[in-house]
């Protein structure tokens, strides 16, 4: 086997493991990967793309809802948070999901400062995850180009 | 009419307002060898079902052959949706004489026992917590098989090509009673008797509704300019 491919595969494995260990991803992400096959080779990339589109849209909604001079409609903020919690749960974006749970409680408590802070964290978190996953896809591309196959990573 | 392989593929209608979740449920169902149609609201779901019904009742020659193409074997819907919730959709389906026999499954990201029992009481077959997994979908096969076989039986009755059923034949051979006492039959045979009677009623209702464009119970959604009016 080409040693470059073998090296890349090892790095890839370690990278994926670290994403799980650092709490970026959970077992729902593993499930997503298992649904990808030769018939649907880009499934994971497609779902993640939809997820990140959702993030942009929903974070925008939350920012607008919180940016009211006067009374803030926390139920409106909460509705967007609920949707983001749902999406992040569906793709295995563990940290984003955790933040949404906290965010939801802050909305219910009508804690304005708390909500604004949490929104900033959500914004940073989804962008961080996006960068990490783009690196993951880059790794995969490099492995294939080096003539190797993308390894199945056992996270247990 | 021979049984083509495609006829045994279950057709599932999936309803979810989340694009991510629609993508996911679509892949899960495809992976379970189902044909999938996804819509983003309860209204669109009813429209999809109503549209098919409209085609059937407008075209009498398509009476027996088209049901395969338009048949929906299961509806899986999200609970939390704006406008019409999954529960609202479930209710509407169960109130419809035509659609009440399609099994409905509810999905929700929230584990609320009161919600779950309300849905099951209203007639949902299963309640899945999101994110839905492939293992969850394996529970659906029996439900879909039941309606598939029922529809196939209906067709055979209408076509007059009803297959001989060994169990029923056996009991008739006993000769003395036309309808043997339940105690004399094995449970399976009793079930088949009941199902057969149910299907004959259904078949009569279906034939009547197709010919007259009327439901035996209540008005079906009619198409006005492509939009189904609410029941």
The shape of chain B is: globular
Strand content of chain B: 5-15%
Work out the helicity level of chain B. 40-55%
Quickly count the helices of chain A.
6
Spatial strand order of the main sheet of chain B: 2-1-3-4-5
CA-based shape of chain A: elongated
Quick one: how many beta strands of chain B? Answer: 7
Main location (chain B): nucleus
Family (chain B): Belongs to the ARR family. Type-A subfamily.
InterPro entries (chain B): ARR-like, CheY-like_superfamily, Sig_transdc_resp-reg_receiver
Subcellular location (chain B): Nucleus
Overall description:
By secondary structure, chain A is mostly helical. In chain A, 76% of the residues lie in helices and 0% in strands. Helix content of chain B is 47%, strand content 12%. Chain B contains nine helices and seven strands, in the order βαβααβαβαβααααββ. In chain B, the strands form two sheets. A five-stranded parallel β-sheet of chain B has the order 2-1-3-4-5, with helices on both faces. In chain B, β1, α1 (19-31) and β2 form a beta-alpha-beta unit. Classes of the chains: A mainly alpha (156), B alpha/beta (231). Chain A: Residues 40-147 form the HPt domain. Chain A: The modification Phosphohistidine is found at residue 82.
In brief:
The complex is a heterodimer of chains A (about 160) and B (about 230). Chain A has about 160 residues and is mainly alpha-helical. Chain A has helices spanning about 5-20, 25-35, 45-65, 75-90, 95-110, 110-145.
